[in-house]
Amino acid sequence: GQQLNQSPQSMFIQEGEDVSMNCTSSSIFNTWLWYKQDPGEGPVLLIALYKAGELTSNGRLTAQFGITRKDSFLNISASIPSDVGIYFCAGPDLNYGGATNKLIFGTGTLLAVQP
Amino acid sequence: SQTIHQWPATLVQPVGSPLSLECTVEGTSNPNLYWYRQAAGRGLQLLFYSVGIGQISSEVPQNLSASRPQDRQFILSSKKLLLSDSGFYLCAWSTRTTGNNQPQHFGDGTRLSIL
Fold this sequence. Notes:
The structure holds two protein chains of two kinds. Chain A contains no helices and eleven strands. Chain A has strands at residues 5-7, 10-14, 19-24, 32-37, 44-49, 55-58, 61-65, 71-76, 85-92, 103-105, 109-114. In chain A, strand 7 and strand 8 form a beta hairpin. Chain B is mostly beta strands. Chain B has strands at 3-7, 10-13, 19-26, 32-38, 44-52, 55-58, 65-70, 73-78, 87-94, 105-106, 110-114.
């Protein structure tokens, strides 16, 4: 079945550093979603990607839909303390058609930023 | 704009007691609704999803049940809680489309502790 592998599992960086994380799958995805979860809160959608090769930015965040459609990357530039949290990638579960909009989530990348 | 509300934010319950968590969505009609559980601040496990009033699909056998009495209301219940039901429960909604590529949007979650 479809699985999403996220790496790294965790990152401990200094404020101001750039961050890069990725999400890979053995299956093709037609959509890639990136979420951030602050401690004690629900995940918030950061970026949605719908086309192979697409590069989309949201402030200091940039995400790319891999050309093979089997991976996606999220970069954060000039990290700040409020970037702390868990970052999840997600894509539609293609085992469920129709209108269920079920998602498969990666296991998450925990980001810690030292001021 | 659409909003999603979950309550309560935190709950401490004794083993064997009943449970009712409520989720409501505003600003949209005919949403898909989802209940997730998150253990230890990491992976999201889909428990139930619903594509319409009274339509519930269960993802994993468990001690919980879900109901959707109204279009924008989703309830997670248990008759008798187990210690293993502890966790962070998240409700989410998505637009219902046939493309199966819509993002899900999450509430702020309920932290459930079983004593």
